[in-house]
Write a structure and sequence with these properties.
single chain; 198 residues; alpha+beta; 7-stranded antiparallel β-sheet; 4 helices; 10 strands; globular
């Protein structure tokens, strides 16, 4: 790529071309590359969504099956307490964990993944009903590096920040989990998380 730019500049110098022409050529090339990057990002996002759907289907295939058992006859002396709905003894569904990329300005998470994606995942969301969940910011070096690209864009739409954002933090601690709800297939923040930079 460096050769291409030097060739363009050398060529322009050899032919006594106008510097505006060389600038125009560079701008055209940058626009072409930017468009290509955008197309590739859309393809990656599409592939991630397909992968996510495929994993959900595979998880559903592995779901436990019911086992037919003969009823047990109880003697008259045995008393069985049946759990009431909502009681602590009732069985809850297992929770799912999702990894979330940078949020939108409106506080929604357009990109989720069942696995952490280095350089992309910033938050972790846990849900037991796939409609309501709680989220925390990941305290890994990769997540911090990604989040610090733009605190105002990647953190502040979904978090209240304690501590100085002027210096690069060693850790980002979630003091209070945020809550989110699924609306139209997208997770959207209901209550911001409270995070502290250290």
């Amino acid at each position: 790529m460096a050769n291409m730019f030097s060739n363009m500049f050398n060529k322009g110098a050899d032919q006594n071309e106008n510097p505006d022409h060389a600038t125009s050529l560079l701008e055209d090339r940058v626009r072409t590359l930017a468009k290509r990057i955008e197309e590739l990002e859309k393809r990656i996002e599409s592939l991630e969504k397909q992968s996510c759907k495929k994993e959900i289907v595979e998880e559903e295939k592995i779901a436990p099956t019911t086992i037919n058992m003969e009823p047990v006859t109880l003697s008259e002396n045995v008393q069985v307490d049946e759990p009431h709905l909502g009681s602590p003894t009732s069985v809850s569904s297992p929770s799912k964990t999702w990894y979330l990329a940078a949020p939108s300005v409106d506080g929604s998470f357009p990109s989720i993944s069942p696995r952490e994606q280095i350089g992309k995942s910033i938050y972790q969301l846990t849900t037991s009903d796939d409609h309501n969940g709680s989220f925390v910011i990941l305290d890994s070096n990769d997540a911090i590096a990604t989040a610090m690209i733009s605190v105002s864009q990647f953190i502040k739409p979904v978090c209240k920040v304690k501590g100085s954002t002027a210096q690069y933090p060693r850790h980002i601690i979630t003091e209070e989990e945020g809550t989110a709800a699924k609306e139209g297939g997208v997770w959207k923040v209901v209550r911001k998380a409270i995070v502290r930079f250290e």
